[in-house]
Amino acid sequence: MLGHASIGKVFNLPTVLTSSSDQGPNGLLLKEITDMHPNATFVRRQGEVNAWDNADFRAAVKATGKKQLIIGGIVTEVCTCDSNMITYINSKTGELY
User: Fold this and answer.
1) Rounded Cα gap, residues 26 and 12, in angstroms
2) DSSP element (H, E) containing 58
3) How far apart are CA 68 and CA 86, in angstroms?
């Protein structure tokens, strides 16, 4: 995930970070990722598992103005699914779709 997260930094891409709950089963977003993107929008969701269910996250993604996204998540079938966007997904297992 660190290599995947560095793509935004290397290519100066707009970056949106999000986590479902700092206290939840997945815990805090990796400090290495937040340190890598200190100026990124960070949406702390209130427990929503699917980030797309959160209006603040959708607004932050829309504000980037990008139509194609590079998305990373722990569970891709939940964390990164949205049928209205072209997405390039990297999961915890390193699969690319």
Assistant:
1) 27
2) helix 55-63
3) 5
| DSSP code at position 96 | B
Beta strands in the chain (DSSP E): 16-19, 41-44, 68-73, 86-91
What's the chain's Rg over C-alpha atoms? Answer: 12
pLDDT value of position 97: 36
List the catalytic residues.
79
CA 94, CA 7: separation in Å to the nearest integer?
Answer: 14
Measured in whole angstroms, how far is the alpha carbon of residue 58 from the centre of its chain?
11
Please state the pTM of the whole predicted model.
0.75
Q: Per residue in 63-73, pLDDT tens?
A: 999 888 777 77
Classify the C-alpha dihedral 3-86-75-20 as positive or negative. Answer: positive
Q: Looking at residues 4-23, what average pLDDT do you find?
A: 87
Q: Residue for token digits 């997405």? A: 87
